[in-house]
Design brief:
alpha+beta; about 220 residues; binds fe (ii) ion; Jelly Rolls; 4 helices; single chain; eight-stranded antiparallel beta sheet
Length: about 220
């Protein structure tokens, strides 16, 4: 792994090769195989997300334990990289399609320390994430573009990640996805003993996800 940037000073840093690209590819294939084995597919698993115009494919770690295990396993190295004593919050997998963008936004309090990890591009076309360079407070409404706001663009290859303070820095993808589709993981941590520790293991979200799924089954 190679670190680009100063997380403490800038609020984000690029983690080149957080995991080997082969591992990123195998993790993606495992998720796809498990989904198909459960009688579903990426085609019939899409749902609407507020930050993306078209339906996206989302799999929460709350319902797919390998993702939760992956999040938990990364916790020691994330504590090392952030210089904070971390507890895992939650994670999820997402597929974006061709032409998708992700509105510029800041994250909720369970995302004190955030990681976006690229797993796979269908057409090997790097799709940049954009990070604001000015700190914000609170979860402002999302915007479709940056306007005059200063920001930087970071290209990522499979296995590369960006570590960022999701609550403090706005972020998004305003360039259309140049691939037919791309697969990404989003992982979040909070600090032990910190202001947001109540979001450790994200039990509140888990309960609301369970309620949502039980309603769908009725
Ligand atoms: Fe976000």
């Amino acid at each position: 792994m190679r670190i680009e940037g100063d997380y403490k000073a800038d609020g984000y840093a690029v983690l080149r090769g957080l995991i080997p690209p082969e591992l990123a590819s195998m993790l993606f294939r495992q998720i796809k195989l498990d989904l198909e084995a459960s009688g579903k597919s990426f085609q019939n698993f899409a749902q609407k997300h507020a930050l993306v115009e078209k339906p996206t494919i989302e799999i929460s770690g709350h319902f797919y334990r390998p993702l939760t295990t992956f999040l938990w396993g990364l916790t020691p190295i994330m504590s090392e990289l952030t210089g904070a004593d971390l507890l895992p919050s939650y994670d999820h997998f997402r597929i974006y399609h061709a032409g998708d963008t992700c509105h510029v936004h800041s994250d909720r309090p369970s995302c004190e320390h955030s990681v976006t990890l690229t797993l796979h591009y269908s057409d090997n076309q790097p799709w940049p994430i954009e990070m604001g360079t000015e700190r914000v407070t609170g979860e402002d409404p999302y915007t479709e573009d940056w306007g005059d706001e200063p920001h930087q663009s970071v290209d990522m290859q499979p296995g590369d990640a960006i570590l960022y303070r999701g609550m403090d820095l706005r972020h998004g993808r305003t360039q259309p996805n140049p691939n037919q589709w791309s697969a990404h993981l989003f992982l979040f941590w909070v600090e032990r003993g910190g202001e947001f520790m109540q979001h450790a293991f994200d039990e509140e979200r888990l309960r609301s996800e369970l309620r949502r799924v039980s309603k769908l089954k009725v």
